[in-house]
Amino acid sequence: MAQYFSRIWRLRFFWMALVKIDLKNRYRRSMIGLGWSLLHPICMTIVLSVVFGQFFHRGDIKAYAPFLLSGFVFWNFITTAMSQGCQCFFQGESYIRQHPAPMAIYPLRTTLGAAIHFGIGLALALAIIWCEFGIVNAPSLLGLVPSLILIFIIGWSLAILTGVLNVLFQDCQHLIDVLLQMLFYLTPIMYEPQEVFKDNPSLVWCMKNLNPLAVMLDLLRSPILYGEFPAVQTYLLGIAAAVLAAVAASLTMMKIEKRMIFYL
To answer: What is the pTM of this model?
Structure first.
């Protein structure tokens, strides 16, 4: 495994160049460039702050908007890693046929592109919070470092898994789109489970602890919105989720990597 990651690192200029090519192609002749990556979460935040603010008993729109924006920025990262991850090996097919580089480079390419947009959106959410409420407990932002690492591992692992599945069974991309729609409502992006399901504490516990995406969202929101370090239990759940995802992705690549070219 160490040798495999060493090969990936030695080829860092290759996959970094691929990420730059993707960004240039996406925003070619664009007036605002990367600003378009913020348009969707900002528009969704504005609309849903007004529409669902009262529904979820969040009368203070100024406090609800950062809550929503952080959720949508995180969700866009996950959905991009999974949906574009489905095509990552097909997208890199020409390179795969020319050079025997580690296959994990191509999902990494997708995840890094999504991570750049994720970072921009996260910076915007922080700027809005600081403008409205001031800098609350700045040292707690150090808690973002391990959280972002775990989120990136989850994203990279999901990109690998969805990419391999879509190579083997090309209907998987459509199934993943359906799965993401279901997960969107099961993940507390627009609501706090303890507020919506306050009469059912067991359901709240399941939603917050058995959904790895909800755990990652807690790791992200605690330092940004509430100015506090995430709970130790939340970190442990996040580490467990990231390790399980990474192990699943590693075992999948070990089994299929040498035969991948025959499926493309």
So the answer is: 0.89
